[in-house]
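Have a close read of this protein, sequence plus structure tokens, and explain what the tokens say about the fold. Thanks in advance:
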Amino acid sequence: MQIRKTTLVDLPRLLEIYQSARAFMVASGNPFQWRDSWPPSSLVKQDIVTGHSYVCEHNGRIVGTFFFNQGKDIEPTYAVISDGKWQNDSPYGVIHRIAGDGSVKGIGAFCIDWCYQRCKHLRMDTHPDNRIMQNLLLKLGFVRCGIIHVVQDTMPRIAFEK
């Protein structure tokens, strides 16, 4: 597998992958995290235009996608954390909207490891019902740090850091 930056030509494929990921989430007991067609195509397009959208390719085919950015205080929703605290306040990488099409095993771990090779301080968050992502993050050495809140809904998210 390999990672590359996304281009606008990839947008239809990314939207297909997110559709597959939403169906998988529902089937695996996580029906609320990405309901209502999250992420919207306008946000996915914005990720591409700003250079923070990446795809995972296997045998020349796009099989996964994610958002990755790094810097100091780059995620406003991470400014307030409850029921815990971040491990430190140094610049960090943030991964969002990670999804695979289900055709290849290990896409999530591969993408997260790729990000970690570029930034040794990562933060992620996930819905309380997303047990699969929680287990993956713990397996990859992330620590549960507390609860954050996102702007798209009122459901709290579990915050992780490595």
